[in-house]
Amino acid sequence: MRIDIITVVPDLLKSPFEASIMKRSIDKGLVSVHFHNLRDYVTDNYRQVDDYQFGGGAGMVMMIEPIDKCISALKSQRDYDEVIYMTPDGETLNQGGANQLSLLKNIIILCGHYKGVDQRVRDHFITKEISIGDYVLSGGELGALILCDAVIRLIPGVLGNETSALTDSFQDNLLAPPIYTRPAEYKGWKVPDILTSGNFPKIESWREEQAYQRTKERRPDLLDD
Ligand code: ADE
């Protein structure tokens, strides 16, 4: 998968791709990530990418021209499956959405800043609008990182143990069951006997039951879907 991220603050984005799973996905050649500073697509001396709102109102708006230039330059080089805009009024990201995006080949992610982008950008260039939750961030960059992390770990070959993404919370609309590791007893707190019994069919049904109970208690809305 190729991910092109358009931003006014590329420095906010880079280091998470230099560690852990996201780095590994790049090192393995499964993902490539490219950052585009919107200011490189502006011709005026001040490298201004935003301007006042028509009709008045607080906050600056990102102008259409540099965004058009950047997206058009990218599109002239390859086809893109989606041009995503990170915005709090987009569709809320969930595991199903991450699964779908993980199947794509080329995506562009546009990070909003200030009050957001000129509506004509959304009308004419954007194919998908994503929010990471009902709260407002200072910009789309941190949301874009969360989106990238959620998507990249689902790409086949990225995680060492191929099955581990399949047993994540939300994969079956269920939260993950409790997990334990050694020691089997710590300060008198014991791991449930079933997990050390060696009876794998029983362990599997215990996990399913626990996942169901945890979902019922914490996220009953998931069971409605
Ligand atoms: N930009 C600002 N807030 C955001 C959010 N909640 N999700 C995605 N992008 C954003």
UniProtKB/TrEMBL annotation:
One GO location term (cellular component): cytosol
Pfam families in the record: tRNA_m1G_MT
Matches recorded under HAMAP family: TrmD (MF_00605)
EC code: 2.1.1.228
Physiological role: Specifically methylates guanosine-37 in various tRNAs.
PANTHER family xref list: TRNA (GUANINE-N(1)-)-METHYLTRANSFERASE
Reaction(s) catalysed (UniProt annotation): guanosine(37) in tRNA + S-adenosyl-L-methionine = N(1)-methylguanosine(37) in tRNA + S-adenosyl-L-homocysteine + H(+)
Sequence positions that bind S-adenosyl-L-methionine: G112, I132, G133, D134, Y135, V136, L137
Single GO biological process annotation from the record: tRNA N1-guanine methylation
Homology family: Belongs to the RNA methyltransferase TrmD family.
CDD domains reported for this sequence: TrmD-like
Subcellular locations according to the entry: Cytoplasm
Subunit description: Homodimer.
Entry-linked InterPro entries: Alpha/beta_knot_MTases, tRNA_m1G_MeTrfase_C_sf, tRNA_m1G_MeTrfase_TrmD, tRNA_m1G_MTases_N, tRNA_MeTrfase_TRMD/TRM10
Domain tRNA methyltransferase TRMD/TRM10-type: 1-224
Extent of the signal sequence: none
Name of the protein described by the UniProt record: tRNA (guanine-N(1)-)-methyltransferase
Keywords associated with the record: Cytoplasm, Methyltransferase, S-adenosyl-L-methionine, Transferase, tRNA processing
Any one GO molecular-function label of the UniProt entry: tRNA (guanine(37)-N1)-methyltransferase activity
